[in-house]
UniProtKB/TrEMBL annotation:
<feature type="compositionally biased region" description="Basic and acidic residues">
    <location>
        <begin position="453"/>
        <end position="462"/>
    </location>
</feature>
<protein>
    <recommendedName>
        <fullName>DUF632 domain-containing protein</fullName>
    </recommendedName>
</protein>
<dbReference type="InterPro" id="IPR006867">
    <property type="entry name" value="DUF632"/>
</dbReference>
<dbReference type="Pfam" id="PF04782">
    <property type="entry name" value="DUF632"/>
</dbReference>
<feature type="domain" description="DUF632">
    <location>
        <begin position="1"/>
        <end position="309"/>
    </location>
</feature>
<feature type="region of interest" description="Disordered">
    <location>
        <begin position="441"/>
        <end position="462"/>
    </location>
</feature>
Length: 462
């Protein structure tokens, strides 16, 4: 229970029990993936999907939501540094607004280039001065609109960076602290479970002797289902965490200039001088790299092995029950034949006592009785053989049960202990590195390597 309760703090931070949003957020309530996309959208308009582009014009309420206060969400948890989901939502809204500004600026730029070309052609052909003046006026207006678009994009970029540094960064640090506390409790709990299994392995279990029944077989099947669910939940948790951090790292990497190192497999490392990068960019990239090195395979394999043991146990229990039915059926058949044999034997005795019975008739009945006795003995030998097989089945079931639980559970708790230890070390080192990387704030100085907002609209190279 303590291990289970340890995860509730992180769940509260992520507001997993929040059930309702205010009416103005129906769009995001209906499609929760949009909040996740707040950390995955690239800041370049060319990277957005066509479906997302078509959606941009459908909503005009994104900015009013982005500027709303913390009362947007119901009080169902959250962090001391603010609502993480609300911060992601505001980032999504500002990124959406930035995309709209970029697209509008791009259309203006295309019109500007076209009009400049038209002006050059008119001037080369010696067009009427009034026509030239009219075209120049349009060119100046378009140029002014481009400058306005640049300033607007720069303003939005500054808001996004402010959200990143003042809200997202402290929230992620708080989340890391919560995860570290969770894995500390998990490690302690799994250590205790591991010690218990070590003691269990030293116990001398009583010899087999109880038959498997339908209730036990149903319990084994239920155990297998629970083990499969346990394994699936564990793998889902690890995959979701890695996907979340990968999305964060992918989005934050857009704040870095194009000198990031790339390989054939994708993004591989940050620029060498990390002190010039925003702290959150470095932190999330280290988190991303560390999680990729953390492998869940030993835990997954141990759980899968125990699941197979449970399946083998279920099969063995079925074989034992089937063999038990054979033994019981033979026992019933023997009882019937014993009764029939005694009845026939009594008739032979009666025939001997009656003097008028022919001697040949009595002799024939005695021979028939001998054949029945021989068949009965053969049936008893078969029953003894089947009974021995049943005892072997019971022994096999007993061994599979003991080995499955002793070895299987011990292996699971051992691998979970190691995974918890590595996870705790991971988050502890991330927080230590974050503390070591802290430097005094320098007023008015923007970290090198951060893209200026004008990089969102390329107006000078087309």
């Amino acid at each position: 229970m303590r291990a289970c309760d340890s995860g509730k703090e992180v769940s509260r931070m992520l507001e997993l029990n929040r059930t309702s949003l205010q009416p103005g957020l129906d769009e995001i309530k209906e499609n929760s993936s949009k909040i996740k996309q707040a950390i995955t959208w690239h800041r370049s308009p060319s990277s957005l999907s066509s479906s997302y582009r078509s959606h941009l014009g459908a909503s005009s309420s994104s900015m009013s939501w982005a500027e709303s206060g913390s009362d947007t969400f119901d009080d169902y948890g959250g962090m001391a540094s603010g609502s993480h989901s609300q911060t992601l939502g505001r980032l999504f809204a500002w990124e959406k607004k930035l995309y709209e500004e970029v697209k509008a600026g791009d259309r203006t730029w295309q019109a500007y280039v076209k009009k400049c070309s038209q002006l050059r052609n008119q001037d080369a052909k010696g067009a009427d001065p009034r026509v030239l003046d009219k075209t120049r006026t349009v060119v100046r207006e378009l140029y002014t609109r481009i400058r306005v678009a640049l300033r607007s994009a720069e303003s939005i970029s500054e808001k996004i960076q402010k959200l990143r540094d003042e809200e997202l960064q402290p929230q992620l640090i708080e989340l890391l602290q919560g995860l570290m506390r969770t894995w500390k409790v998990m490690l302690e709990s799994h250590e205790i479970q591991k010690q218990i299994m070590f003691k269990v392995n030293s116990f001398t279990c009583p010899a087999y002797g109880k038959f498997s029944n339908d209730h036990q077989r149903h319990a084994t099947l239920k155990l297998e289902a629970e083990l499969r669910n346990w394994r699936a939940s564990f793998l889902s948790y690890v995959a979701a965490q890695k996907a979340y951090v990968e999305a964060l790292d992918g989005w934050l990497s857009r704040f870095i200039l194009s000198d990031m190192v790339y390989s054939s497999r994708g993004r591989s490392s940050l620029p060498c001088n990390k002190t010039q990068l925003p702290p959150l960019v470095v932190l999330c990239h280290e988190w991303f790299v560390a999680l990729n090195k953390l492998t869940e395979r030993p835990v997954s394999c141990a759980m899968r092995s125990f699941i197979r043991s449970a399946r083998v146990l279920w099969v063995k229990q079925g074989e034992e029950q089937q063999q038990k039915r054979r033994v019981d059926n033979l026992a019933k058949e023997i009882d019937k034949r014993v009764v029939a044999f005694k009845r026939a034997e009594n008739k032979v005795v009666e025939s001997k006592l009656l003097e008028y019975k022919a001697e040949s008739d009595v002799k024939q009945k005695i021979e028939s009785l001998s054949e029945r006795k021989e068949m009965l003995n053969t049936l008893r030998k078969k029953w003894e053989s089947e009974k021995a097989k049943h005892h072997d089945c019971m022994k096999n079931t007993h061994e599979v049960t003991l080995n499955g639980f002793k070895i299987g559970l011990a292996s699971i708790f051992e691998s979970l202990t190691e995974f918890s230890r590595e996870s705790l070390k991971l988050y502890d080192e991330l927080l230590v590195h974050n503390e070591e990387a802290k430097v005094p704030d320098r007023i008015g100085e923007k970290p090198n390597g951060v893209e200026g907002s004008e990089s969102h609209i390329a107006l000078d190279g087309r």
